[in-house]
Amino acid sequence: MSTDPATDRASLIELRRGDAASLNRLIARWQRPLVGFAYRYVQNAADASDLVAEAFVRLYQRRASLRPDTNLAAWLFTTLTNLCHNHHRWKRRHPTVALDAPAEPGDASRTSRAIAGLAAREESPDAALVRDESLQAVRAAIDALPHELRVTVLLHHYERLPYREIAAITGCSERGVETRLYRARRQLRRQLAAFLRETSPC
Predict the structure, then answer these.
(1) Nearest to 2 by CA among 73, 106, 82, 71
(2) From CA 141, how far away is CA 52, in angstroms rounded?
(3) All domains of the chain, ordered by start, with CATH?
(4) pLDDT per residue over 81-95, tens digit each?
(5) In Å, how far are 8, 180, 193 from 149, measured between CA atoms?
(6) d(CA 165, CA 186)
(7) pTM for the complete prediction?
């Protein structure tokens, strides 16, 4: 994900002056990466969109209190990670039974491409099942990580943010980010080991 702090600062200054169009520009710029992050955290497309919308609502509500030199990317991701964390805790206390697997944003077009690709590659049903199970196993393993480790993994491996940006979002040092990634990878390896044993050919 590319960032342009100068553009963000200019839009934030305009937003603080009451220019509502600047909020639309910020939404156009940040909605996609924020929704992608939120989806990977909560694993539900509708909830992810709602949480991102709430993050933008909070940005508008607090526009006057933000400094003109605010790191907007860090502010948005920090706000969103807190919203995702609270939502995730609420969901765990109030579990529901999903009728369908949640669809990731953009899944419709991806599904069409995947079907075309499967036809071209003639992927066997067994291979497709193993691939789907592998994705589910990885998602479940990431979901089982503690909040601070999960956020760090998502920001680093999916959003491709450098340690410096992750440190600003998570409120720790760059060395702390490195330590969290090490701990997260160790836990993921441990959690995925059983799955890998089960799916390995005899």
Answers:
(1) 73
(2) 24
(3) 1-98 (1.10.1740.10), 124-202 (1.10.10.10)
(4) 999 999 988 877 766
(5) 27, 6, 19
(6) 23
(7) 0.74
